[in-house]
Amino acid sequence: MTAQNSVTAGLMVGTPNVIQLVGVTKSYKTVEVLKPVDLDIRDGEFLTILGPSGSGKTTILRMIGGFTPPSSGRILLRGTDIVHVPIYKRPFNTVFQDYALFPHMTVARNVGYGLRIRKTPQAEIKRRVEAVLETVNLADKAGRYPAELSGGQRQRVALARAIVCEPQVILLDEPLAALDAELRRSMQEFLKDLQRRIRTTFVFITHDQEEAISMSDRIAVMDHGNLVQVGTPQEIYYKPKSEFVAKFFGENNILPASASGSPPLAVIESPLGKHWAPADHQGALLFAIRPESFRLHDGSDLSAGERVAKARLDSVTFLGATTQLSLSVGASDEHRVKIRIPTALSTQNLVVGSDVMLRWSETDVSFLPKG
């Protein structure tokens, strides 16, 4: 099993895993849709599984929930294999994209449905439903029907139904995809706040990078059935481990590079000049840096690890709080980079076609394997 196919996230001291996927795969006849995956999901965290359509993220969620059996591998709940445990015996609840509310039931009866199935005493159902509706700010909507609610309110009913049975894990399959942009942002804030308050593990599926960044404690990135990187939003944004992650997870400047040399440091040549990195980098590489990591060099002294390079200014685009500059770099100006700087900085004197000096820190650069 290669690092490309399997990423095992390290444990935080005092933060045990609630779920572990060990060598989990999924195939349909001769089509392998999920390569061997190892993934640890920590108790009480908000983990997002992020990837484009067809990457395997929903397949993982369905296997955890028991809706789809894995072709091989183990799914452990606090150390116990649950691969053969049926859905109704797993201490998880799932929130689907379409909410799956019963149209003929009131909000209160929708929320209490799972408790009634479990034959919970009526007084206990009433108490718990009232408490959870208070938690999701729907106490005044208990007697309404789904058709009388807004999209965001129906979403909160589905969440209330998921948490009322006090599951160990809540699985969320792109639950915000059907909402408009403004409501979606509001629900993102609500979901994260709710997860912090009830301290339950959330496993959230999305293809939206901004959504993943704003909500997650950690993100697992999927690509063509491979789990390619797991980390905090900051780790994945600023230190991608592959070209796919660098391009998929926000905008990145990607330039060709080559490394040579012997321990402890390799010399790396790129269109922005020479760099130094651990000597395990060898041969053809890719140089990646975020647009906001560049600055225009004002001639002041450089700090340790800072670099400068000449560039030609090709265009200036006003974006509101920031301004984007497009520049050509390299010996023959054959490569392009974009940088974003605060508009409050003086950009009025920039002349398209003129030379400028770029400034950046070595710590903001990622060197990626080519291909």
TrEMBL record:
It holds the Pfam family ABC_tran. Residues 19-249 form the ABC transporter domain. PROSITE patterns: ABC_TRANSPORTER_1 (PS00211), ABC_TRANSPORTER_2 (PS50893). InterPro entries: AAA+_ATPase, ABC_SmlMolc_Importer, ABC_transporter-like_ATP-bd, ABC_transporter-like_CS, Mo/tungstate-bd_C_term_dom, P-loop_NTPase, Transp-assoc_OB_typ2. GO terms for molecular function: ATP binding; ATP hydrolysis activity; transmembrane transporter activity. SUPFAM superfamilies: MOP-like, P-loop containing nucleoside triphosphate hydrolases. PANTHER family: SPERMIDINE/PUTRESCINE IMPORT ATP-BINDING PROTEIN POTA, SPERMIDINE_PUTRESCINE IMPORT ATP-BINDING PROTEIN POTA. It comes from Rhizobium ruizarguesonis. GO terms for biological process: putrescine transport. Belongs to the ABC transporter superfamily. This is ABC transporter ATP-binding protein. Keywords: ATP-binding, Nucleotide-binding, Plasmid, Transport. GO terms for cellular component: ATP-binding cassette (ABC) transporter complex.
